[in-house]
Amino acid sequence: MAKLSEEQKLARRLQILNAGWRCFDRNGLHATRMDDIIAEAGLSAGAVYSYFKNKDDLVQAALTTSMQGLAQTLRPILDNESPPPPVELLESIAEAIEAFTKRDGFDLKRIALLGWAESQRDPKLKAAMQAFYDAFLGQLAGCVTRWKAAGLFGASTEEAPLARALLALLLGYTVQAAVIGGLSPGILRAGVEFLISQHRASP
Amino acid sequence: MAKLSEEQKLARRLQILNAGWRCFDRNGLHATRMDDIIAEAGLSAGAVYSYFKNKDDLVQAALTTSMQGLAQTLRPILDNESPPPPVELLESIAEAIEAFTKRDGFDLKRIALLGWAESQRDPKLKAAMQAFYDAFLGQLAGCVTRWKAAGLFGASTEEAPLARALLALLLGYTVQAAVIGGLSPGILRAGVEFLISQHRASP
Amino acid sequence: MAKLSEEQKLARRLQILNAGWRCFDRNGLHATRMDDIIAEAGLSAGAVYSYFKNKDDLVQAALTTSMQGLAQTLRPILDNESPPPPVELLESIAEAIEAFTKRDGFDLKRIALLGWAESQRDPKLKAAMQAFYDAFLGQLAGCVTRWKAAGLFGASTEEAPLARALLALLLGYTVQAAVIGGLSPGILRAGVEFLISQHRASP
Amino acid sequence: MAKLSEEQKLARRLQILNAGWRCFDRNGLHATRMDDIIAEAGLSAGAVYSYFKNKDDLVQAALTTSMQGLAQTLRPILDNESPPPPVELLESIAEAIEAFTKRDGFDLKRIALLGWAESQRDPKLKAAMQAFYDAFLGQLAGCVTRWKAAGLFGASTEEAPLARALLALLLGYTVQAAVIGGLSPGILRAGVEFLISQHRASP
DNA sequence: GATGAATGAGTCTTCATTCAT
DNA sequence: AATGAATGAAGACTCATTCAT
């Protein structure tokens, strides 16, 4: 049989990854059997095992590929030299997340939940996850710095806690979208706008 | 072995639940073997199985008991007739969560992550989870109503989106605490305070 | 607690045996759990085990007691000095079997089937069964001898094969009654009468 | 391991069935462990489970395959347009049963007893068994009809009861062969011949 | 005597992975 | 390169029996 080109290999790998995501979305990481993924991919066991060393390898790839893709998607928004105000930034990140995670037959937000759970017991995954979120926090902190420079926040505003709060909103958005449903970037934005609208004692 | 009193049975059940929580915290829901829990509980297989029909039953109980306990813990805070302003409310809820979830040998926040993941594939659990969070959202919306009555928010403030945002902050707090670490109720509070401090165009 | 009289003990034993028969009838020998019998008898585990050494002992007792009871029931019919002709004898034996085996909540004919199956793997039971059927065959052979003496059969008639055929009819009656249903002593009698009515070449 | 042909699969299935029959013959349906069958078949657990869903499935197959095979074996004898007289028919059926059931390392007559017992608690098996015996009875009744047409029996002879009696003889033959031993088709034939030889009042 | 909670060896079944063809 | 049959270790659960109270 003809040798596969590098390109074909990558496509095949993605095909398996997609099958994995679909299965994981449906049944979780552990309850999904290799046979499920094999059947969903429409390949043979041997074929799948020639692309991934074992189940753990495939799980890692499914999770990290997802994270890397999201990081790449969010980069232009987060690295924006003059980021829009928090509320708008949050909404556009949420919309980017939504666009990136909504796939045919699965939703990467749901996969993210699986990844968080799995990271509790898998140190390698935990490290990857921390690196991803540390970078995310760093980018958010950068936005805060630029907001301060632009006069949107006072000089005493600390980057780290605010970045944490912003990340919390996005993470909490993801949990609600996956577990409860009924949430959209617009609603999140509205909620945060209402929160900020809290009456303050005049100076 | 005399007939066990209802009280003794409950204590034994809790003993098994604690063993389960410890094991789940350590190794996740699926990778934890019944034997792990049995050994951790210091009982025999038969004894454990006389309190829980099967592994799934124990998992359900571990997850729902945890949710119910938290709901009960938060009730006085959330049903407060004159709730403190958002920032303080968030901090005190986060502190209550912290106090409730930090256990000997495990952390129920980590268990919550496992529950979210599991709820993706278990409809019964998903329903329980939705009921829990719907109630939570309802209580938060109640706080918003009372804040509006107290003049803290304008009349046009909508309860639902704001409740969603507040829940997102708490959920995101939980994820960060479990997955990244380095977060405390105080830091969350500070972050939200900074967020609210955003300069606004004067009216 | 007061000491039980011999009589009470026997009654209690029979109570357990009845529970056993009911359970065995419902679910077979092996699929019936001791707990089933214990619950059906309305006793405690300890109580049952004070009457029967273990499950095998109870099974043996259930099976042999049933056989002994039937042997005793059939004795007057089989030891009759001037037995009625074969067809009538068969019908009255079948009727006696019917009367003996039809119980409240179970049917000892069905238990007999379980016993035959079990005797394939339990040498002790097999021996008991062979003794029972050997005695049965002996009694039937005795009837044949008396029929010959009474001129009902020719002198060349052999006892053993005829006894075997008669026993086969009764055993086959039992199987059909238990497995297919729709059989009664009267139908069996009619069938054998028709069989005997076969036209013979005149001498 | 290339793809197995349908033929190879059937052979493999039969190999497992044979192992099952041997084990069941030796130790009964319930006391036989899957590991016994697996070892007897010389396969791995997984291999056996790829041919039979579970133990119950294998038991069903062992029992029904046996019945189907017997039905097929007896068909030419039972559907014979001019059946030999009852005594000869019985003998030839018994001989066919003997030839069909006597296998290498087991005896399907003994398995039949296990099947009757099991059918008491398994509705699916009970239905299969009833269908099998109903067909058998129908074929025997057909023989009676043909005997009547041939003048061997009077016009008033009823098919059903006679068929029942004939079936009883064959079933009783099976029980005796399996439980007591010492019976052969020839002895059964002799017994029935003696039974029919009963002196009758001349017309 | 009676109870019924506890034990733990024993079974069925699954599923990740391999490798002969 | 590709296949998919075979492996077998691992894990959930049951149930006969005991014995402390």
Structure in a nutshell:
Four copies of one chain form a homotetramer. The first copy, chain A, is mainly α and 203 residues long. Chain A has a domain at 61-196: Tetracycline Repressor, domain 2 (Orthogonal Bundle), CATH 1.10.357.
The sequence of SSEs of chain A as H and E is: HHHHHEEHHHH
Q: What is the CATH architecture annotation of the domain at 61-196 in chain A? A: Orthogonal Bundle
Question: CATH homologous superfamily name of the domain at 61-196 in chain A?
Answer: Tetracycline Repressor, domain 2
Report helical residue fraction of chain A. over 70%
End-to-end span of chain A in angstroms?
A: 78 Å
Give the beta-strand count of chain A: 2
- Low-confidence sequence ranges of chain A: none
What CATH calls the topology of the domain at 61-196 in chain A is Tetracycline Repressor, domain 2
Largest interface (CB < 8 Å): A-B, 63 and 64 residues
Neighbour order of strands in the largest sheet of chain A: 1-2
Radius of gyration of chain A: 20 Å
Strand residue content of chain A: under 5%
Derived from helix and strand composition plus strand pairing, the structural class of chain A reads: mainly alpha
Number of helices of chain A: 9
Shape summary of chain A: elongated
User: What is the overall pLDDT average of chain A?
Assistant: 95
In the CATH hierarchy, what is the class of the domain at 61-196 in chain A? Mainly Alpha
Q: Tell me the major beta sheet of chain A.
A: 2 strands, antiparallel
This entry's quaternary arrangement is homotetramer
